[in-house]
Amino acid sequence: SSGINAEYGGLCVTAVGASFGTNCGYAINPARDFAPRVASAMLGYDGTFSAGSYYFWVPIIGPIIGGFLGTLIHHLMIDMHRNKPAAKESKDINGAEMVENQYTPTAEA
Q1: Which residues contact 25 (CB under 8 A, 6 or more apart)?
Q2: Which of 40, 71, 79, 105 is the most buried (most CB within 10 A)?
């Protein structure tokens, strides 16, 4: 089941590209959208940055705002409500100390 997560991610990217690709040129990554616009402007094409009512800034600012909002929502909805248990100290069969399932052998003199 964990091996199929990459396929779900690829399908999501394909769905976004298929639904918004005609309108904004598949601009889901600022690096894929901004660099060709700069190259087009340097080659002399008119309207590279003014096309679509100056739409060029949306794929650049959108992921930044989305990343910030996603982090904020995750923090508010998940991290603040997660119970963080205290570290448990115990000893394994050989007498070595274990802290939260990490094996830390004791020094023997």
Answers
A1: 33
A2: 40
48: Cβ–Cβ under 8 A, 6 or more apart, which residues? Answer: 37, 40, 41, 56
* 51 in Cβ contact with 57 (< 8 Å): no
* First vs last C-alpha separation in the chain: 48
Could you please report the per-residue DSSP string of 7-54? HHHHHHHHHHHHHHHHHHSS--SHHHHHHHHHHHHHTT-TTTTTHHHH
